Amino acid sequence: MLLFPLLNYLNISFINHPHQYTWGSFIVLAPHIGYAHPPIKDYWPNLELLEAVENDAREQGHLQTKVTLLFDHPYLNQLTLNYYAANQGSNLRFDTLDYFSKDTDEALVRRISDHTDYIVTKADKLGPDFSNVKNVRVKAILDEGVIPLRAIATFPLPDNTVIDVLRKENPASQPLQSPPILLSIGPPGTRPGVGFNRQLNGESAMWAQGENITPTTIIVFNNTPLHGFQSSQQGIITTPVPDEMFSTAGQFPIYLMDSRNSLRSNELTFHVE
After folding, report:
1. pTM of the model
2. Domain 46-173, what architecture?
3. Deepest in the core among 7, 79, 232, 247, taking most CB within 10 A?
4. Residues with Cβ within 8 Å of residue 38, at least 6 apart in sequence
């Protein structure tokens, strides 16, 4: 019985052989068997998320702050965030929905409504399916607007998704939100297959200027949402544009949309000719 762990120890520590060997369904030797997840080089914004909530909670006068994550991801989860919060002496407490809970979805929504100050949602790739069953169902209910929420921050992630940080609002204090207004885009067009504003990674990039832009406002290119970045200049959003979206000639509609409530702007046209 000691042979298998010894072989894997030698392989991981000294040999680092890239192949996997199995005996039936039993893994005998593999490069990943020594840890739950391989080491990662990508940066996940745990500290930025912590700082965004803490700063907003301070402005709102919260002494003890409860944050519910509607996802359970290996690299961004309640355990990691609670560790950072404790390490920095923060008064934030992070939680997620227990997939073992026997509470109904409606009861979980009531618990969030009564006891949560902030909610953090992830656009996609929430983590293991088994631990996110209730998160998926409850997020679908919250997307119907049963709890008034206001977006305070959005962070892009290494897995090409984003997280939205939402503050629970008092219904009486929540102002009516106006839809975004699209004023201009850049560039206004290109030739088929010709890139523009090339970034260091080779991707093309465009910008949009508008009004009533929130942290959850995105650019929609020919009905395809593009998750970009808020510029340091107020009212500016930038986003990468995949090459296949301008590979052929055409007139493609561009508009802004608030991903939190689906409010959308007027359209401008991106010309490929």
Report:
1. 0.54
2. 3-Layer(aba) Sandwich (3.40)
3. 7
4. 32
Which tokens hold the place of 262? 């689906």
- 264 neighbors 170 (Cβ within 8 angstroms): no
Task: Tell me whether residue 106 is exposed, middle or buried, using C-beta atoms within 10 angstroms of its C-beta: 0 to 12, 13 to 18, 19 or more.
Answer: exposed
Reported as a single tens digit per residue, the pLDDT across 42-74 is 889 999 999 999 999 998 888 789 999 999 999
66: β partners: 93
The Cα 66–Cα 79 span in angstroms is 14
DSSP state, 248? Answer: S
d(CA 265, CA 259): 12
Whole-angstrom Cα distance, residue 189 to residue 219? 15
Residue 229 tokens read as 């970045």
| Alpha carbon 225 to chain centroid, angstroms | 14
Cβ distance 198 to 243 under 8 Å?
Answer: no
| Higher-confidence position of 136 and 25 | 136
Domain spans in the chain, listed from the N-terminal domain onward: 1-38, 46-173, 181-272
- Amino acid making up residue 98: D
The two three-digit tokens of residue 13, written as one number? 């520590």
- Angle (CA) 26-32-38 rounded to 5° is 150
Q: Which residues have CB under 8 Å from 101's CB, separation 6+?
A: 108, 134
Tell the CATH topology of 181-272.
Immunoglobulin-like (2.60.40)
Q: Give residue 31's pLDDT.
A: 61
Tokens of 147: 């709890």
Neighbours of 167 (CB within 10 A): 19
CA distances from 162 to 76, 77, 206 (A): 12, 14, 19
Position 137, amino acid? R
